[in-house]
Design goal:
The protein is mainly beta. The chain contains 4 helices and 12 strands. Strands 3-4-5-2-1-6 form a 6-stranded antiparallel beta sheet. It has a 6-stranded mixed beta sheet with strand order 10-9-8-7-12-11, with no helix packed on it.
Length: 170
């Protein structure tokens, strides 16, 4: 069985000279990241496992230390690398109303019984996740992924039900 991998962060730069790295990640993911024992990097088209020794958080980023990476030279080589976990690991930490981005992209969007578009992307504006919905008129509108607007997500039937407030979709 082939594993699918999900990006969870990025090595921004080195931190100090002991092989620690500054880690960029999505907002409010500290608890998830602090429970990880390992992550993967993609090197030469292969996923290579890195064992996490410790991770701590500053107001701006995470500081992560990997087993066997003990010098500035070792960590500099990993600068700008994306960090991945297996999709299975990512799912273990999803809350009931959380989804992986690739599950949402491609879903049809309905307002009542009427199809109004499809999800073409997901982004975050700091306050909430936003669904990029391409309407039937081919315009892309940003829909806040909040309970008042996104009423239900049905992965199995590939449908998202929204409350299409006036002016939301063009």
């Amino acid at each position: 069985m082939k594993n699918n991998f999900v990006s969870v962060g990025k090595i921004l730069n080195f931190h100090g000279v002991q092989g620690e790295a500054k880690l960029g990640y999505s907002k409010n993911r500290e608890e998830f990241l602090s429970q990880l024992k390992e992550v993967y990097i993609l090197a030469n088209n292969e996923y290579k496992k890195l064992e996490i020794v410790r991770i701590r958080f500053t107001p701006k980023c995470g500081i992560i230390k990997f087993k066997g990476i003990d010098s500035l030279n070792d960590i500099v080589e990993l600068k700008n690398q994306l960090l991945f976990v297996t999709e299975e690991t990512a799912r273990e930490f999803l809350e009931e109303d959380e989804f992986l981005i690739d599950e949402l992209v491609g879903l049809d969007v309905y307002d009542g019984d009427k199809k109004v578009g499809a999800v073409v992307g997901v982004s975050n504006n700091g306050a909430s996740d936003l669904l990029s919905v391409k309407t039937l008129s081919k315009k892309v509108s940003l829909v806040p992924f909040v309970k008042a607007i996104v009423l239900s997500v049905d992965i199995k039937n590939r449908k998202i039900q929204i409350n299409n407030l006036e002016g939301l979709l063009e």
